User: Fold Beta-xylanase from Psilocybe cyanescens.
Amino acid sequence: TAGLAVAAKAAGKKYFGSATDNPELTDTAYVAGLSNLNDFMQITPGNSMKWDATEPSRRTFTFTNGDTFCSGHNCVWHNQLPNWVTAGNFNNATLQSIVTTHCSTVVGHYKGKISRTITDILFALTDSWDVVNEPFNDDGTWRDDVFHTTIGDGYVALALRAARAADPAAKLYINDYNIENTGAKATAMLNLVKSLQAQGAPIDGVGFQCHFIVGQVPTSFQSVLEQFTALGLEVAITELDIRMTLPSTAALLQQQKQDYQNVIAACKNVAGCIGATIWDYTDKYSWVPSTFSGQGAALPWDENLVKKPAYDGIVAGF
Ligand code: XIL
Assistant:
């Protein structure tokens, strides 16, 4: 078969990519697979650009691990915050200043260096940031995190404006999960985008994480993608994996292949869906087993770096 990135490009997409993380980069067999440009043209840092990694103490920025990568994930998120960013520590005005400083410093550090695709690194065409990650609860209400409880809805526009000022060429995204089906959470994200556009706040794209379960991939994904591109946005699959209850069986692996194919086909069919990223490429380094008890085998390569049926499902989807 052609390769995942080759198939994505042939379908008119900008990239196919994978998340990765610094500790894995000592595994030479793993790095050899990740470096195959026929499969991966884009990298998302799994952890090393998050707030706890980049600003562990107030105004002390560290970019050592993040500098390994050329991508932007993420600026403002309720998880992986350093302890100093805690509800009750700051009033509204101070936290606004903290968010602005964090976003402008981190995005500014990577100005002209981050890139959506390896091709783009060579030609310096474009780049993107997940500026705000996971703002909503599953019922479509705002997540009750330090940013929303202290600043209110306006923290999103604040972070986006700081990012735009720090790197005017970067594409600015909001990224979330469980917005891949029609429902309250997707509607809340659509309404947020419309409100940002009405305020003139910079928003270029919405990322669909796509952390799915075998046999349960959403059926309205393509129509949701179309609802967002109809607003003039680009969209992307940003963190795709499709987990199963272990142990894996031949039947589950076949269903997983079909599921990957269906998800990728939805992106293929929407011109404004610019690319797809899997949340690492091998089960060896997947976040799933440590996060969802009893589940795993979510990625297209197994723990021994051997391709699974899902690999062919992705190629077929494009
Ligand atoms: C995960 C990482 O993969 C793990 O290593 C870390 O322990 C927790 O975060 N949504 C996101 C990603 O936007 O940043 C998360 O990554 C997975 C869920």
